[in-house]
Amino acid sequence: MTPPLSHRTKLGYGAADWGLAAVESMVQIYLFKFYNVVVGLPALYTGLALALAIVWDAITDPLMGGISDRSRWSSGRRRPYLLPGAALLAVSFIWIFNPPPLDSNAARFAFLLISFILLNTAMTVVGVPHSALGSELSFDRDQRTQLFAYKRLFGTVGALAGLWLPGLILAQMDGHADPTGAQARGLASWWLAAPIVLCAWVTFQATRGLDRPSAELRSKPADHAQPHRPIHLWRLFADQRSALSNPFFRILLLAFLVAAVGRTLNASTALYYYEYRLQLTEQETIGWILLPFFISFLASLPGWIWAARRWGKKAAGVIGVCGLGVSTAVAYPLFPIGELAAPLVYALVGGGLAGAVVLLDALVADTIDYDKLKTGLDREGLYFGVWRMGTKLARALGLGLNGVSLWLIGFSAATATQTPETGWRLALLFGPMVGILFFGAGLILWRLPLTDERHQRIQRLLRRRRQRLHIS
Prior knowledge:
Elements: H1 7-39, H2 43-70, H3 82-96, H4 105-136, H5 141-172, H6 182-206, H7 215-218, H8 233-244, H9 247-277, H10 282-311, H11 313-331, H12 341-354, H13 357-375, H14 380-408, H15 420-446, H16 452-471
Helix pairs in contact: 1-2, 1-4, 1-5, 1-6, 1-9, 2-4, 2-14, 3-4, 3-6, 4-14, 5-6, 5-10, 5-13, 9-13, 9-14, 9-15, 10-11, 10-12, 11-12, 11-13, 11-15, 13-16
């Protein structure tokens, strides 16, 4: 039996996700519009720069997973990367939201591309080892769900900070002094930098002694398992193919990718939809719609954990994701212009349905058990590296799609108001197009053959193998 983890350990493990989510929240909600409207880079070029940076960064995720899988530091193989990665993340976060004066679109494009590559690389150095560590802390399937729920808990609070702080700073400033919100974004990045590093340190301390080398590394002499051992790229690519040959992981990854494209498109289009379609101010959007959404998301997590125990992770996840897709497609085109009540009500409903995403994270750890049974290897870093690589590629596709879509529907950042036709097209982009992606992800998830009963059989076989190895 796996010894139960303390609440202190679970809370401490989740803390590092606060910084990651705070950065992702500000990036997904504000960065596109910041560089498009404030910095002055056309939407098509903004989407292209962000997409190219993410595609490049996606390559580093499996590489980081392979490095951490092979590491053998005295403090573990995942934890040593948390603090330097968080420091780099804090610095690059400040840099991207405080650009120098740039006189040409070529300079703006280059600055955004380089700074976003640096930012995402830092997130990889923290995020991949952190996710892999969560899969290794416990063999018990319910404790794993709780661990990833705590991770999502801190992630949601961090996302709230990234969403709320720029709006709060903007509200405290004279509107004439900062009409575009540029100073508010820059100041928010400075305020969030120190907590990013602090939360990574909390996770580093809370998991001390629990980050152990894999069974494969423990069985080898020390000189064959040092962290500086060369990593062969051809071997990493071969490992990625083997991960994708896992039928459970492959289907789960596809479902998540489709949902991630929808989520990115939704987040990067939100401020455009609420300002130019519903004619709400940014303060109204943040305070009365986006903030309640995240609070509802946070409050729903215990309910989704209960649903996973009662109906299984897959069934509960399908209900949440498909429900989110249908409601998104129907609701957004119907909201009356200039009114807050209907969007507020749906923010509470949508946030509750979106909480089901925590079950997808927990299912990744379950699919890795199948790989352990087939190969006898501990490759959590590889799997979460491929998972995050898929996330990055989906985000790149979503941002690129947003840039192209805004261009196709006739949106112009040079004008303060848009035509009614452009507003209606924004509603279709933000509603039915995103909703179809969410619903499609739910249908793919329904095809996942990893039922609770099958996973329990896999774990029983793994326990028997461990007992035989222990006896021998």
